[in-house]
TrEMBL record:
This is ATPase. One of its GO terms (molecular function) is ATPase binding. One of its GO terms (cellular component) is proton-transporting V-type ATPase, V0 domain. InterPro entries: V-ATPase_116kDa_su. GO terms for biological process: vacuolar acidification. It is a multi-pass membrane protein. Belongs to the V-ATPase 116 kDa subunit family.
Amino acid sequence: MAIVKLKKITFCGMLSDKRRILEQVQALGGLHLIPLAEPPGQEFGAPKNTEGVVEALKYLNACANKRHQIKDATRFDLERITEEVLAIKAKVRELTDIYDALSKRIDEVEPWGDFQLPETAQLAGYRLWFYIIPKRMMKKLEDCDWVWQTVYQNNLYCYVVVVAESEPPENSMPVVRTHTGSIPLSTLKTQRSQVELTLEDLQAERESLTRWITLMTVHFSEALDQADLAKAQTITRDEAGVFALQGWLPEAHTEKFLRFAEHHGLAVLVEDPDPGDNPPTLLDNPRQLAGGEDIVNFYQTPNYYGWDPSIVVFFSFSVFFAMILSDAGYAAVFGLILMFKWRSLGQSIKDRRLRVLAANTVFVSLVWGVLSGGYFGYSPSEERFISALKIIDINDFDGMMRLSIAVGVGHIALANAIRAYRRYPSLTALASIGWLLAVVGGFCFWLSATTDNDGLRQVGIILPATGGVLLLLFSSERGLKRWSDLFWRLLDGVKSLIGITQLFGDVLSYMRLFALGLASASLALTFNQLAVQVYHALPGPGLLFSILILIVGHVLNLMLCLMSGLVHGLRLNFIEFYNWSVSDEGYPFKAFSKKGVR
């Protein structure tokens, strides 16, 4: 759990060797370049349609059947093949929409049969009007003066044709008329068949183009590398036949770059970051816990001079998700899904990191679900062994409220403890200690009111009072050079005390853990009870309906739990926790290196 310490390195060499040196630096990798000159606002040799190439590669890679890869690049043209792939994708999308529309139209027309509407003159001015009428409403046609005939019927509807010169008024028919269109059923089926054949041809063309995937990937990566190289040449400082290249590098790689400079005859200077520098942030976490790093970078990259919250987020997100889910059965379902997708989630380093995070979250959710005794909304009877593991009662409102608030107090107290550690030896670290005492003391005072404990009440008075004094005296970074500075420091302390309302609101935000967990358990129980009621109310078919209610209900609840767990599990970390621990935002370390397949 650390932000990698960086060094600033500067190379100087002959201008005639600049391109060669930059190529070697790019091949070596691991250096975040610092612009020493303003780069021109232009593209540097990247493919004209970068997004199009990426889209084309994704489309080809998604093809189920791939051809043998071509290695000879003699006839290879990246732009031409990209255009062909995108044209096929667009045509397939268009024809798929047409196919779906034709299929829908065929389903609507098929009950009427295959017929060609006659010309109006052939029926002496009469026309055909079509109606789909529910069987229960057919009695309304008994007294109808119109000439009509039922041409088809099923268990629910009668398909009725009315012969009349003009459309019957709406109030004279049980339902509004149906538009069958003028295209015969056989023609619609022929059109759909032609579209289906064209789609098959396009799919064959797509499969044929998959033979270029490797060359497309390699050439695209090389084009991006050349673009990066061209851009790097514009941000060096060039004077009097000499160029200077500067960048940030991890401290552990210093020796490697010093050997590189010596090998190529370059002058080199390695420095620590100056106070006015703003280095990029490179996070370094154990492989098993690096999933939190990806979540942190997705929301906000911490500042180089700050701290890495990745591991805290890794574990706290899992705990929050588990409390919101509050069901071992649901956790087991997520576990089975993860096992089924485990191999496919290992295609990239980022996917493997998130896979470990998901596994940890499922494990914590399973443990919490067992401790809370929830299994798809059911609680085992006391006679069963597994019921002995239940030590948390979701329906104990007071207990769950205290637990949720305790989790929030611990989370925010940890945030302030970390901030105090980061501020040390500055006296402002005592202000963070003040907030820690305030939140812990306030919780103790609240507990004393519900448990009538005098010891907790005394702690709940002493800690917030001490914290308030620390906030009043040490919240300001203003120096004491004259007597008036003491007044301004105290005024800064008074202003910081206003934050007590935000502290109170942030702690109460953790109540959502209890509320969402209770909602999840209640929904699961409701679907179970509804299924039982239907089963007993409808002997025979009730079994089928009750099974459908269970499946649909629990799938819906699973989706709601997943959304709630993701949204609110991340929100409590990135809003409440970050507010008290992570202040300044940084920017990610981007290595100047070669990309793609090697």
